[in-house]
Amino acid sequence: MKSSGGAQCSHNVLRLIINKCARRNPFRVKLGSASEGPGIFISRMRVNVKRGFNRLYIVLAVLWACYCLVIYPRQQIREANKQYGEEVGICYQYSPQEGRADCMKRAEQMFKTNVAQWSFKNFYLWAWWLLILAVVVFPLALYGFFRGAAAVGLWVWRGFRATSP
After folding, report:
1. 3-state SS string for 53-81
2. What pLDDT does residue 17 have?
3. pLDDT tens digits for 134-154?
4. Which residues of the chain have pLDDT under 70?
5. I want to staple 87 with a disulfide (CB 3.0 to 4.6 A). Which of 107, 123, 138, 150 is the partner?
C-alpha cells in the first residue's frame, strides 16, 4: 500500500509541474487518466492556416509596396551615379584638346536627366499606372493564385484520405 500512496503523491507532484509548464508552453499537456493509461500526452495546439497566410500576405505586400515606392527609385539613382562615374572616368582619358570639356558636359547632362527621371516626384508622375499595377494588382493576383492553389491542393489531399465506413 505504501508504494501506491507514494505513486499517488508523485503523480500529484507531476501534475502540478505539468500544469505550471502548460501555462508557459504553447503545447497542450495532459496527464494520462485511468481510461487512457498512465503517461503524459503532449499535443500541438491547432494552427489557423488561413489567418497565418493572410498575415504573411499583408506583411509581404507592405514590404513589396515599400520596395516599389521607395527603394526601387533609390536604386535607379544609385545606378545613375555609377554610370556617371564611369562616363567621367572615360572623359578623363581624353586630353583637354581632344574634347574633355564636351565629354564632361555630356556626362553631366546624362546624369541630370537620369537622376531627374528617378526623383520621387517625377517617378510618381510618369509611372503612376505602373505603380498601381505593381503595388495593387500584382499582389492581389498572387494572393488569388496561392489561395486557389492551396484550395486545389487541399481538395486533392482530401481525396486521398480514407472515408470511414
Report:
1. HHHHHHHHHHHHHHHHHHHHHHHHHHHHH
2. 66
3. 999 999 999 999 999 999 998
4. 1-45, 164-165
5. 107
Q: The cell 505513486 sits on which residue?
A: 7
Q: Which among 49, 60, 45 is positioned nearest to 153, based on CA atoms?
A: 49
**Extents of the domains making up the chain:** 2-44, 49-160
CA distances from 43 to 18, 30, 51, 70, 129 (A): 13, 8, 21, 45, 50
* Residue at grid coordinates 481510461: 35
Name residue, grid cell 486533392. Answer: 156
DSSP, residue by residue, 67-127: IIIIIHHHHHHHHHHHHHHHHHHHHTTS-GGGTHHHHHHHHHHHHHHHHHHHSHHHHHHHS
Q: Are 103 and 91 in contact (CB under 8 A)?
A: yes
C-alpha cell at 109: 547632362
pLDDT of 87-108, one tens digit each?
888 888 877 777 888 888 888 9
